[in-house]
Amino acid sequence: MFFEQARIGQMANFGYLIADPVAKRAAVVDPSFDARILQKVAGENGYAIELILNTHHHPDHVFDNERLANETGGKVAAHELSRVRKDLVLEDGALLHLGDLGIKVVHTPGHSPDSCCFIVGGHVFTGDCLFVGDCGRVDLPGSDVEQMYDSLFQRVRKMDDDLIVCPGHHYGPTPTSTIGREKKTNYVLQPRSLGEFKAFMASP
Q1: What is the pLDDT along the chain (204 residues), one digit of tens a residue?
Q2: Contacts of 185 by beta carbon, 8 Å cutoff, 6+ apart
Q3: C-alpha span between 36 and 23 (Å, rounded)
Q4: Helices and strands of the chain, counted as H and E runs
Q5: Can you tell me the distance from the alpha carbon of 187 to that of 201, in angstroms, rounded to the nearest whole number?
Q6: Domains of the chain: which residue ranges?
Q7: Which of 1, 83, 86, 125 has the CB geometry, 3.0–4.6 Å to 78, for a possible disulfide?
Q8: Taking the model in full, what pTM does it have?
Q9: How far is CA 78 from CA 30, 51, 75, 180, in A?
Q10: Residues in a beta bridge with 8
């Protein structure tokens, strides 16, 4: 799988380009404020952008959706609870195809109701569910600390240790990590009861 990570905008957002290099079919994960740098990489490699995958609907992740879709013909794919205009409505467990690549959708609400992770080619694109060394906020409109607890401990912690974590922001010490490393070092993934987690997330 072809993989390109780009830091975009003033909020340390990450946008991604993934592709099947044989089929020359590509997807952008979270266009953020301006995905033209990823378009350029796609063009240089002869890749056609067919999918625009949104991990969640917050503007810093989806602002460039429509321009990118208009210029490339790529289809916007987002969870059914997402507020964005979407060509493909995603639900938990769905499998998308990009050439010979299979993209698995894992619904991980908590930061927002529509938050999803995408697993493909040994990578997991976690949006604002999981950062390197942290997780997304749960004090925003639509956030839910109990859903975040369930997503982190019943979904993320059960993913394969070898998966490369590709977060929605560069908030950690490294731009990527692995599920195994995060289970050992990320303080939000350390075993806690729901009550302990709620108290922990509410603390300064």
Answers
A1: 999 999 999 999 999 999 999 999 999 999 999 999 999 999 999 999 999 999 999 999 999 999 999 999 999 999 999 999 999 999 999 999 999 999 999 999 999 999 999 999 999 999 999 999 999 999 999 999 999 999 999 999 999 999 999 999 999 999 999 999 999 999 999 999 999 999 989 987
A2: 133
A3: 22
A4: 6, 14
A5: 11
A6: 2-202
A7: 86
A8: 0.97
A9: 10, 10, 10, 27
A10: 13
User: Residue type at 198?
Assistant: K
CA distance 148 to 113: 10
Handedness of CA 105, 188, 175, 9 (dihedral sign): positive
Looking at the chain, how many residues does it have?
Answer: 204
d(CA 90, CA 118): 11
Residue at token pair 């990578």: 123
Helices (H), 34-173: 36-44, 59-62, 65-72, 145-150
State both tokens at 119: 């697993």
Distance CA 79, CA 74 (A): 16
Looking up tokens 């195809």 gives 97
CATH fold of 2-202 reads Metallo-beta-lactamase; Chain A (3.60.15)
